[in-house]
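Subject: Re: docking follow-up (pyridoxal-5'-phosphate)

Dear J.,

Thanks for your patience while I sorted out the input files. As discussed at Tuesday's group meeting, I've set up the holo structure prediction with pyridoxal-5'-phosphate included as the bound ligand rather than trying to dock it afterwards. The sequence and the ligand SMILES I used are pasted below, so you can double-check that they match what you have on your end before we go further.
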Amino acid sequence: MMLRQKNIGYSLFQQLRRAKCSQIDKQNSTDALKRPLYLDMQATTPIDFRVLDKMLPYLTVDYGNPHSKSHLYGVNSSSIVEEARENIAQLLNAEPSEIVFNSGATESNNTALLGLSEHHFNNKSIKNHIITTTMEHKTVLEACKYIQKRFGFNVTFMDVDEYGRVDINKLSQIINEKTLLFSVMSLNNEVGVIQDLESLGALCEERGVYFHTDAAQAIGKIPLDVRKMNIDLMSFTGHKVFAPKGTGGLFIRDKKQYKKNNKPAIQLAPLIHGGGQERGMRSGTLSPPMVIALGEACKIAQREMENDNQHIKKLYERMYERIFREVPFVKLNGHPVHRYFGNLNISFKYIFSGDIMNEIKNKIAFSAGAACLDEPSYVLQALHVDESYAFGAIRIGIGRFTTQEEVDYLLDTLIPIVNNLRQKNKVYQQHFAKQNNQ
Ligand SMILES: Cc1ncc(COP(=O)(O)O)c(C=O)c1O
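The structure tokens for the complex came back this morning:
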């Protein structure tokens, strides 16, 4: 019986594999594209086949409940969960016991911020001040606003510099004896800027402030070391690193790591109550296939990060070089060097990004930087990008599987669209008329 089920399981797996492979062959050939080319890797990534390979048996054959360890099914599922925990811990230089699995970075950010605040509120701690930045993900901004209302905490939404980086001297001045936590995104989802986590972590450590980083976009893309960076809490998610949506986790620094430290071991009130899984931090039955997918994605990323980044940087330079050579009045958003090169966020003056999207959406899928027609994105506003540029922002997201052919297809499509839209723009025409009359 077991054998028969195994065969069924694996034949389904082979079929899926074949179907996916033929899909990618098509995807690689832009001529044969039946749907727009996907270049929005900050929104989500496709599942790596190796990740899919790893997870399928745990959907079909080894489907035990990892918390029911009185029989082989549960034992197998539990051991695969622990293997995943180990893979993630290795990538972050953490201990496996410091990893709590959950549904993704939204849940992690909420657990980190609300859990810490609730614990300190319940214990009548004098620490009731949180610092974050104006360009954080909505999951952090909204959780902070909730904490202000629910616990009466003070939250400082500090400014960043024109590239989106935190000024460490400014942060040092804002920290006071009531500061409980500083929270910043490791790698910004919209403009790709990377923070100096090591310096920020050192400052927080020295001043007795807990340090949380939202690494949803960073895990598997840039080196992260929770010890070197003095990180207390780190949020991550699977679907930005070639694992499925709905799987993620939170790193919580273990109490033995606070021995020589001027802050007490971190404690969080859980967000979800129930069976006490994940050391009481997150009740609910874990999904072994989802957890192992995240673990496998991290293992692959650790092995291939350098290769991935070399490949991605080459493609980024190809895009950057041609766009800046062939299109006038274009601006890079975010930092030119301290950035993830899988993110090209650029603004075209004299154009609305919505108009570019309308022209290109049947051919290529990427993201418009402007949130709506009336207002540029809050992240570009945080960077004080001039409105004349902020309305014309687009974000192109490339990744491990993006090819040079696809990048050339993007450039051959995008550049004429931008130049044509400009020709229709009266302000642009007037600008050139003025220049010619001078
Ligand atoms: C920086 C950042 N934080 C948090 C999230 C939310 O992650 P999830 O989709 O796993 O809930 C995202 C996803 O867009 C993100 O980019």
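A couple of observations from a first look. The pocket of pyridoxal-5'-phosphate is lined by residues 104-106, 137, 139, 185, 189, 214, 216-217, 237, 248 (CB under 6 Å). The two ends are 86 Å apart (CA to CA).

Let me know if you'd like me to rerun anything.

Best regards,
T.
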